Amino acid sequence: MSDPFLILAPILLFAVVGLLQFVGCSFQAGEAASAPDPTFDPIGGTYSGPVSVSIGDTDASATVYYTTGTTPPSPPGVGTVYSTPLQISGATTVNAIATDPADNNSNVVTAVYNIVPIAFRQFKEAVASDATGASISTPAFDQPVGQGSLMVLWIWYNTGGQNVQVESVTDSENNMGYARAVGPTAGAGVPGFQQEIWYGFVAMSGAGFSVTANFSAVFTGDKAITGHEFTGADPTGSLQFTAANNGATGTANCGPVQATQGGLVFAAAIFPGGATAGAGFTQVSGLTGNVSEYEIATAAGEAMGTFTNTPQGWIAQMATFK
Question: pTM value?
Fold first, then answer.
């Protein structure tokens, strides 16, 4: 003889589910609660210097556990409780998990950090004396320019008093996105001359790579361009701070501006009578006595663009990158 309860049990279950849905409740069998996933700030990626990484969670009551390396955290036995930002100075994998007060766990999330110092690779430059035209180009670089490289352009010219400046920078591989970092800057101590610093990242490269500065109008006068290739710069938000200055005499300088540890400090200046790089800088260009230079910041803090020159007029600019 059949047990009436066994026959009625499924009917009663469907009735209960139907009643819950009727009053606005949902029913999902077997779904487990979980804590929100932790987040990293900054996100994983390649950086030119040490980074301080914070791990957060939208549930303020959750406890975050983390590990570095290949072993994921598994609270409470595996992992360190997060309390203060992690100082990352080399290639590091960070894994994190959050546990809420009800002992529900989030997913394990991972961020990979690579520290690749910025380094100078090569440069190419050209000057046209008292020439008529609306552009000037570098010769082809000796080595293929690497994809992802930072290209810093130093451009100076004598407009003869005309209202002219650099309108755009292009290259032989049609890379987009070159932008002015600082300038145009003029100075009474170097009459008629201006200079600018532009920069961009190289997405496409090839043999015979060259860079061109395009001016806003045709003019007759000196024109010069120097392209500097650097590797290891952050392709997102690389430009940090800029400064410009000029003088009729004395020692050329500009700044101070902030630089990050491992970041690039780039400076350039033009002179009527010539000069050399300042203390701590590596000189790249000495085109007709003018100077481009760089240094890699050994610590975060203020940086100055300085030069070594006899008293004379000058125009100087600088920019920092990370």
Answer: 0.76
